[in-house]
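Q: Predict the assembly, please.
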Amino acid sequence: QVQLQESGPGLVKPSETLSLTCTVSGGSISNYYWNWIRQPPGKGLEWIGYVYDSGSTIYNPSLKSRVTISVDKSTNQFSLNLSSVTAADTAVYYCARRGRSNAFDFWGQGTMVTVSS
Amino acid sequence: DIQMTQSPSSLSASVGDRVTITCRTSHIISRYLNWYQQKPGEVPKLLIYDTSKLQSGVPSRFSGSGSGTDFTLTISGLQPEDFATYYCQQSYSVPPYTFGQGTKLDIK
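A: Predicted assembly structure:
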């Protein structure tokens, strides 16, 4: 059974960079698209972007100028960097696998990130 | 972007009821429509993919239908554990993947 686990700081200061890592266990990172999705408190889901095992990426245009997603196949991890954060970036951040069905079939538990000074 | 509109935004129902949630998309997406269930404080869970295919382990009381721009999620015989928020999501066009705003189903 594939498992995903997010890790990273729970508090980030405004204007700084939010950095999270997702560790994939129980399966290979190869041949799948690995996604970041976020959910502000009390609100809906927003897709941030994905990375393929080759390192190719696609980002949400609304965040593209601030987002970098990368993959490290040697450690079965992928990462999110979101720069110049503001309070609007406060959210639960999920990592998720896009499966063969093109749907998000495995999710991490989510990590709450608060942007505050 | 493909806009996703769910209706209703919330509804109340009783155990045993049959409920239907609708998702309308701003562009034709063929059958590339997925449904997720999220309980408070929990992770979204994939229920249905490609409009009508049940994810492994999901009870058969959940079903999906539709095509083009109009889709429905039906729960036949509501169980206490089904009270949650449901989201639709299109996987037809990226970027970006987009979600509906959610439908909160609670107990009447």
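Chain A has a mean pLDDT of 97. The radius of gyration of chain A is 13 Å.
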